[in-house]
Amino acid sequence: MSTSDRIEVLEAEAHYARQRHDLYRAKMYGGRPTTMSRLRELERIHRGAEARLRAAKLERAAPPPAGSSAEQREAGGD
User: In this predicted model, which residue has the larger pLDDT, 3 or 19?
Assistant: First the structure.
């Protein structure tokens, strides 16, 4: 899976997790049966998805590490 494909998947997961958290929080105001533990669990899932997305974007933006195979090919080391 390419980096851009991976980021697309992570964006979709983060969006879905955020929606679930927001909808559950709204449900709490509507008087329907809810629990704080479920809200916390959805918030944990949401934050984890956002963190994975952030890490993938940073990884994509970071320059390749020194001694990577791309640098070796450019230098004729392959």
Answer: 19
Q: How far apart are CA 51 and CA 10, in angstroms?
A: 10
Q: What stretches of the chain adopt beta strand conformation (E)?
A: none
Residue that the structure tokens 């001694």 belong to: 67
Q: What is the pTM of this model?
A: 0.74
User: Residue 75: what pLDDT?
Assistant: 53
Classify 31 as helix, strand or coil.
coil
In sequence order, the 6+-apart residues with CB closer than 8 A to the CB of 21 are 39, 42, 43, 45, 46
Give whole-number Cα distances, 47 to 7, 15, 22, in Å: 16, 11, 12
> How many degrees, rounded to 5, is the angle at CA 72 between CA 68 and CA 78?
125
